[in-house]
């Protein structure tokens, strides 16, 4: 359970940093590139086994890591486009609702438990996601560019499912560093392209923000995988608790630190979130 707590705290810290990006006008692409480079470095630093490039390429998870590296960058941009064209609420609901994909995968592929209390908790979690994500001042238009939230929903769910399915038990840091390394290479290519085409200079203040983002980004993935690898735990339970706890805590942090408005629906969503966590945990 301690790994899950650290994962939730790390993921919530990502939310706080992204809020600070807009406040201090940080170049998001540059910070993201630094973030992936730092996350890659942490994976290499904490890897306890000798590193051989040829051996990594031959691992059963290497091509999955390459694909995930591409997905990490792609879904980030899809999330940004969804927020711009469909509204923040639609983007939030689409990304958080994706928890149903790894949950269904765990139940049907890994034959995880399906007792009534757990299923009620999962259903209540989805209701909590919707209610907590809806912002009264957000001009959300779900019918406009409908393909974007669908791609975001599927992409986010595939990332969670694939990371859990392909991650090895004994080489988590190396697996994560491979994913982040690929994402960093792609991000550097995009940055070079934008620098040449748009003449976008390097923003020095984006570096420290990217550094801290890389630290908590690596931590969120590492601790989540450690929680998923704890004996006698089910991925459908872990993913449900993780997503809902992040959503509830991020909403409360937004209220306390950034004075964000929380509607009655949001409060009901937070209440449902805690009930869902209790139902799924005790199932």
Secondary-structure element order, as H and E? HHHHHHHHHHHH
Q: What percentage of residues falls in helices of 4 or more residues?
A: over 70%
- The count of helical stretches stands at 12
Number of strands: 0
User: What is the number of independent domains?
Assistant: 1
Q: For the CA atoms, what is the radius of gyration?
A: 19 Å
Roughly what is the average pLDDT, rounded to an integer? Answer: 87
Largest sheet: none
Q: Low-confidence parts, pLDDT < 50 over ≥5 residues?
A: none
Oligomer: single chain
In whole angstroms, the N-to-C terminal distance is 15 Å
Helix-strand makeup class: mainly alpha
Strand content: under 5%
Described by the principal axes of the CA atoms, the overall outline is globular
What do these coordinates show?
The protein has helices spanning 2-23, 28-46, 53-57, 62-86, 88-97, 100-109, 116-133, 147-166, 172-197, 206-228, 235-258, 264-282. The protein is mainly alpha-helical and 283 residues long. Helix 2 (28-46) packs across helix 10, helix 4 (62-86) packs antiparallel against helix 5 (88-97) and helix 4 (62-86) runs antiparallel to helix 8.
